[in-house]
Amino acid sequence: MFETIQTAPPDSILGLTEAFQKDANPAKINLSVGVYKDPSGQTPVLRCVKQAEETLLKTETTKGYLGIDGLPEYRQHLHGLVFGEQVPASRVAIVQTPGGTGALRVAADLIAGQLKPAQIWLSNPTWANHNAIFTAAGVGVQSYAYLNAEKTGLDFDAMLEDLKTKPRTGDVVLLHACCHNPTGVDPTAEQWAQIAEVVRERGLLPLVDFAYQGFGQGITEDAVGIRTLLQTCDEMLVASSFSKNFGLYSERVGGLSLVAKNPAEATAALSQLKRVVRTNYSNPPRHGGAIVATVLSSPELTTLWHEEVAEMRNRIAAMRSQFVAQMHQRQSKRDFSFLLSQSGMFSFSGLNPMQVDQLRNEYAIYIVGSGRINVAGMTDENLPRLCDAVAAVL
Ligand code: LMR
Known about the structure:
This protein is of the alpha/beta class. The protein contains 13 helices and eleven strands.
């Protein structure tokens, strides 16, 4: 039976971490997968998470199944973080999902099953897995322009022109709420307002990927795109993740929120979302959602969480500046100062696939083939070696 199965190519992001782990070079640097590292190069468990886990250890009374849509208090807090008070809970259907990827797959299955024949429009470039997730669910994938020719900033005119002219009414447009993955290039608040207008005029459904809330400008500030869209559009999907901002990567904590025009439509949509969940993974894992709910139910732990997110955000911004400065000291071929206006974990370095290969083969430095660098993986210790190597391959 199995002799017909062909070997699949390694995943373009997680496959690199597998290769990194096998690399025997003690000076190796992994700037591929989007995982935060502290100044000592570790991915820490947040202090608020540890404290919440201590509480859970004492108070948790069961490991029984959660409901198909997850923990009620978790969903309530998710609503607050994403929408504030802008939309009443009665118009929003939320399912807790295994990570942001789980949320995207649930969205994809809902789109494929209920909104046919909608296609989805992805920015070019976008997170490598977007294409795969929607294709796997049977949703047609198209792309809209995003970056300028130099790949250093947004080509907003081209993006808007594509959204105005290419999708059909009823198509879905995937937007990154903040910290665009892989480029770090985000629209401004004014640009969001124009995007929202086009989405409304053209009758498109926004699906907003919100995997980095708090890593751009701040926890509330990073919701600007969603809040602006909501002023104009009365329907939306949002895929949230707490992998990065709670450091809960392996606990797989996320959620899909569906904003409907009215409570009746939200109720019907929730019933379909639950069918999608039930036939995929039955119901979500408890622990990560319970941690988030415990933190956000406690004013003290919430304050600590805000501080820890700010610490991570500020460290990434500092690394970004240091990388730019150190590259400037080493060479004059390429000015990296465009990285300073980008936000979040990632930057599009402009390194070409040959340079990316050379960094890996000669220097044991791992970055994604597109030239995406995880700035959050830079530390004071690895930066000089990284900059020497980048200068050499340039
Ligand atoms: C990334 O883009 O590196 C992260 O979102 C992790 C992943 O699953 O790819």
